[in-house]
Amino acid sequence: MRAIRKPRPGPGLEVCDVPKPTVGPGDVLIRVHHAGVCGTDLHIAQWDPWAQGRLHPPVVIGHEFAGAVVECGPGVGDEFTIGQLVTAEGHIICGHCRQCRTGNGHICQRTSIIGVDRDGAFADYIAMPATNVMALGDIPTTVGAIMDPMGNAFHTVLTGAEVPGSVVLVLGCGPIGCFAVGIARAAGAVKVIATDVNPTRLELARRMGADVVLNPATDDVVARVLAETDGEGADLVCEMSGHPTALTQAFKSARLGGRVNLLGLPKGEVALNLSTDVIFRGVTVYGVIGRRMYETWHQMRTFLSSGHLDPMPVVTHRFPLEQIDAALEAIASGAAGKVILEIGD
Amino acid sequence: MRAIRKPRPGPGLEVCDVPKPTVGPGDVLIRVHHAGVCGTDLHIAQWDPWAQGRLHPPVVIGHEFAGAVVECGPGVGDEFTIGQLVTAEGHIICGHCRQCRTGNGHICQRTSIIGVDRDGAFADYIAMPATNVMALGDIPTTVGAIMDPMGNAFHTVLTGAEVPGSVVLVLGCGPIGCFAVGIARAAGAVKVIATDVNPTRLELARRMGADVVLNPATDDVVARVLAETDGEGADLVCEMSGHPTALTQAFKSARLGGRVNLLGLPKGEVALNLSTDVIFRGVTVYGVIGRRMYETWHQMRTFLSSGHLDPMPVVTHRFPLEQIDAALEAIASGAAGKVILEIGD
Amino acid sequence: MRAIRKPRPGPGLEVCDVPKPTVGPGDVLIRVHHAGVCGTDLHIAQWDPWAQGRLHPPVVIGHEFAGAVVECGPGVGDEFTIGQLVTAEGHIICGHCRQCRTGNGHICQRTSIIGVDRDGAFADYIAMPATNVMALGDIPTTVGAIMDPMGNAFHTVLTGAEVPGSVVLVLGCGPIGCFAVGIARAAGAVKVIATDVNPTRLELARRMGADVVLNPATDDVVARVLAETDGEGADLVCEMSGHPTALTQAFKSARLGGRVNLLGLPKGEVALNLSTDVIFRGVTVYGVIGRRMYETWHQMRTFLSSGHLDPMPVVTHRFPLEQIDAALEAIASGAAGKVILEIGD
Amino acid sequence: MRAIRKPRPGPGLEVCDVPKPTVGPGDVLIRVHHAGVCGTDLHIAQWDPWAQGRLHPPVVIGHEFAGAVVECGPGVGDEFTIGQLVTAEGHIICGHCRQCRTGNGHICQRTSIIGVDRDGAFADYIAMPATNVMALGDIPTTVGAIMDPMGNAFHTVLTGAEVPGSVVLVLGCGPIGCFAVGIARAAGAVKVIATDVNPTRLELARRMGADVVLNPATDDVVARVLAETDGEGADLVCEMSGHPTALTQAFKSARLGGRVNLLGLPKGEVALNLSTDVIFRGVTVYGVIGRRMYETWHQMRTFLSSGHLDPMPVVTHRFPLEQIDAALEAIASGAAGKVILEIGD
Prior knowledge:
The structure is a homotetramer. The first copy, chain A, is an alpha/beta fold. Chain A is built from 12 helices and 19 strands.
C-alpha cells in the first residue's frame, strides 16, 4: 500500500509502498479516506531537535485521519461493522497506570502516538486498537480527519470555565485557535475575541464566529480586551500560540478570578510575574494536552452531528497523498488554515 | 401614591392610595416603571391556603419590577445615581446565617419577600436595600421587570449540568419554562425539547428556540425523548410544572448519569421509584429555589446585554396598574405567557 | 475445582466440583484466597423474585474476592506477575457505550456481574478480564476480599460533598454503612452520626469512628441530628438502608443546601414531599450504584495502604467455603458485620 | 486608648494614645484581647518599598485580632450581643462589584485592609463593619487572633483539590505553612510532606502532623517527594514561600494532573518552563489571595470548634502590646512560629 514515511534520520519524507498492516487481537483495520496534516508532521519532515529525540525511523507518519472499517481483529466484538465510517484517537495509552485508571488517560506516561512512536495514518490503511476507534455516524470523513486537533480545541475551551455567558479570548488563530473560536461561539460565549499576526487567519477566525479580531502587530491586545469587557478582562483565555508575548497578554487579559488554559507550547522558559498576574488576581491556570479520552470525543460528536459547529471554513487546502510536500509548504507559509490529504474512499 | 394591595384577609385586591415609602439607611427608593405579574400574585388575590398561612394584610403586593432610582438613603455610597434604571432581587436575606455566609443566600431561612412578607412593587414607588438593587445598564425596564422569574429559569438551567453540547428537556412551558428554553438554547444546548398541555405555550416555547415540542395530552413524552436522543435520554431535565405526571416523566427521560433540576412545586407527596429511577441510573436531583445571589443576576445581565437571549416573545400581555384583575385573569386562563403591568416612567 | 453454585432455579446452593475456568485473551486467572459474602448472595440462595428474574443457572456465585495471579492470558502484557496479590471489580462493562466512554462505566447498561450474570468467585479459581483486576500491593487478601462493598461506601461518602469539616449522617449500619462511617472519619468529617435498629451494628459503627449513634427504635433521629448540628442538619446524608422511614429521615436531616447520597435500595415506590424536603431546601440528591471505575479503587488503595482506614473491625465472621450456609445464616440474622469465606492461599 | 501606629513615612513604629474609634451605622466596636503579628507588620515597620507605596500614615497597624463586642452601631440588628467573643475578616470590600456579587469578594478591587489602608487592630479597640465580624463561639481569642493567616492556609489547602486520600506537599513552614500542614492532616490527607530551610520550623511542621519533613539545604526535595509517592508526585502542592527555588520544586513535585496552589509571593518575575512543567503534565495552578468570604471562616470554625485542628503549637511567642519591637524581632529572626500580642481582656 502507499504510505508517507520518514525513511531514515535526517530531513525529508518519502512516498513509498509498504506492507499493509497486520490486524492483531483487539485491532480494527481502517481504509484511510482523509487525513489532516499538522505542524508536528512539518517538524518531523524538517527533522527538528524534537523529532530527532523522539522518532525511530523508518516510520509512517500522520496522526489525524478518518476512513472506513475494513476488518476487525479477534475479540473486537460487535461494536463496528465493515464499511462503517470512523476516526480514531491517536494516543494509544497503557490503560492501567494511575492516570489511565482515574480518567486522565490523556496524560498517561506510556502514551504511544501514531505517526510518531509507531506507524501512522498517511497511508492507504492503518490498524488501530478498537478502544481508540470512534464511530463517525453522519459526520463526513473530511471532518473526521480533523477531529484530533479539533479535540485539542474542545479540551481547551470546555475545561474548567463556565463558557455560557462568558467572554472568551483566543490567542493565536492557527487551525486549533480557529476551532476554539467556533467552539466558544457554539458553547454560548457572549463575546469571542481572537488574536493573530496573520490577517488571513484573523479572517478565518472571523468566519468561525469571532466578534472582535485583534492583530498584536498593530493592536494593544490587553488594552483592547479590557475595553471590550468594561475593564474586567476575559473570563476564559485560551492561549494557543506558545508565543512569549501572547503568554504575557494571556495573564494580563484574564479577569480577576478568571482562567487561563494553555495549549500552545512555549520554547524554553518564560518569565512570569506570578504575584501580580496569578496570585493577586486569583487566577486559575490549566495545562492542556491531547483530548480527554473520551469525553472530548463525545462532545465533538454532539456539536458536529447537530450542526452546531461547522469546522469546514477552517479547511483551506486539500492535496492528494503524493503531494505531501506541497501540503507541508502550505503549513510552513503560516497563512494556511487546516490542510487535508485526500487518500482514498 | 397608587398601589395594589391585599387590604385584609380574604379574596380580592384593591387599587388604592398609600403613603410613599420612607427611605432608611442603606435603602434606595425606586420609581416603578414596569412590573411582572406572577402566579403567586394570583394565589394571593384568591387567598389560597398558602396565602392565608403566610401573608399579614394589609400589604402591597408584587415582587417583579424595574424602574428608576429617585433617592438614595444614608450610607448607600456612589453605587447608584439618580435616574439610573434598575431592577431588584425581591428576597431580602439576613446576611449572617450560615447559608448567607457561604454563598447560599437564596436558601436563607430568614428571607423576607417583597409583596409577600413586606410591601411590594405594584405601586408607584418601592424602597429596597441597596444590596438587592441591580443596575440594568442598557436592558430596558420591560425586561428588567421580568428578571426575577427569568432568574429562576437561569438557576434551573445553569446549575450543575454542562449545558454546551447537551440535550435539555423542559417540562412545563409557563413563562419560566419558556425562559428556560431560550436560556438552554443560548447556552449551547444542541437540542431543546419542551412539553406543555397548552398549544399556545408550546408555540411560545417554539419561538424561544425549542427544537421539539411535545404535548403530554397526545404524545408519549418519555418515548419521544428517548427517540430524539438515540435511546439515551436527556442530559438535563428541567421540571418546571410541579405536576406529578411530569415528575415521573422527568426521571424516566433523564439519561443514565443525567441530572433532574426541580423548580415546579408539587402539591403534597409524590410517589417515586428511587431504586429504578435514581439509584440504578446514577442520576443527580437538585431543588431550585430563587436565584443565586447574585451570580444568577450577573449571568442574566451578560446574556441580555449581549443580545444572546431575547425574552420578549414570552411577554404576551400588558396592562396598566389599575387593570390588575384583567392581568390576573389572563394568567388564570393558562394560555398567557408573561403578563406585565405598565406603571410609570 | 471446588465452587459454590446455584445449580438450578429454586432455593438453595450446592458446593460441588466444576472445571477450572479457561483463560481467554486479556484474562487473568486468579487463585481465590478470601471472598466476601453479600446480601445479594443470600437473595440468590433464597431465590427471591430479583434472582428469579436475573439469574440463569447453573452459575457459580460470589462477587467479592481477592487472591493471587496464577496465569495471564494472551495480550495481558506486563501489568501482572505470577503470585501477585489482587482483587477485582466484579462489574464487567462493555467499554464503548456512552457511559463507558465518558468515565461512567459504573452505569454501563451492558454490565455483566460476576456471580450473577456469569460464574463468580466462590470457587478455587476465577478468570477475570485484566482491565478489572486491581493490584493489592501491601493490602492483605482479607481486606481485598471486601473492597467491592467498601467501594460502594467510598462512592457514597466521597461523591459531590466536601467531607473535610462536615457533619456526615449514615443511615443504616450494615457492613457498607460501617465502612461509610470509617471513611467519613478518615476523610476529615468533624462529626459522624450513625443510625441502625440493631445495637450490635451500632457498636460496630462506634468502633469505626461514629461520634454519635442513634437507634430509630428509641431515638427521634431527625431531632437528634438537628440537636447535634446547632439546628442546621447534616452536610452529607448517606442513606444505606433503603428503608422508607430512613429515607424520610434522610431528607429531613439534611441541612439547607446539603446533599443526600442514596445507596440503599427501597422496594417499590416511596412517597416524598419534594417541595418541602428538596426544592425549598436547595438539596442535591445522588443515586449511588457500584464503584467509579476506577477512581474509587484508587481512593481505597490510598486509604488502606496508608493505614488511614482500618476496615477489619467490620469483619465479624469467617467460614470455610464449605460452610456457605452458616455464612448466609449469619447475614440473615441481621446482627453480623462483614462475613468472609476462607477459600485458599 | 493605646495603639501601635506608623506615625509618619519612614522606618519605625510608635506606641501611643489615640482616640477610641467612633461607631458608625453598621459597625461593631470590639475590645481587642489578642492580636497576631504578621510579616506584613514587619514590612510596615521597616518601611519597605511596598509599604512606602501603599500606606498613608498616620495609621494604626495590625490586621489579625480577636476580642469582645462592646458596642453595636445603628442598624446592626440582633446578630451580636455585648461581651460576645469575635474575630473579624480584615478585608473590607465594596460589596457591589462583579467579584463581590459573584462570591469572589476576596479579589474585590476596592478592598480596604485594616492596619494598612485604615486603622487596624494593634489597639485597645477597633470598629469593624458587622459584615466582617465573625462570632467565635467556644474558640478562645488566642486562636481567634490568628484566624486571618490560618484562613490563608485553609484557602490554600482546601481549594480545588480532593484532599481526602491525597499526598500534600507544603513548601515553606512559616506560620501559614505550619497551619497548612495541620489542615491537610485534619482534612484526610494520607501523607503530608513539608519543607523549610529552618530546622525549628520543620519541628513545628512535624508537631502539626507532617509525616515527612525536608530541608532544601540538604535534601533533594523533588527526588524525595517522588520517592515518597511511588514516583507519582504530590496530588496537591501548597507553595507558601514565594522563593524561586521552591516554585521550581512545586511544579516538578506535582503529579501528572495534579494541582499547585500558590500563596507565597515571589518578588519580581520567575522563569517557568510551562511546556514541561504545566502543559505536558496537565497541571492546574491557582493563585491564593486572602480568605473566601466567608466560606473559609465557616470551615475554620468547624475544624476548630470540633477540636479537629489545634493550631496552638504554632504559637511560639507572646508579648504585651508595648513590646511590639520584640515581637517584630522574633519574626525577623526567621525562627519564630506565630507571634501574638496580648492586649486586653
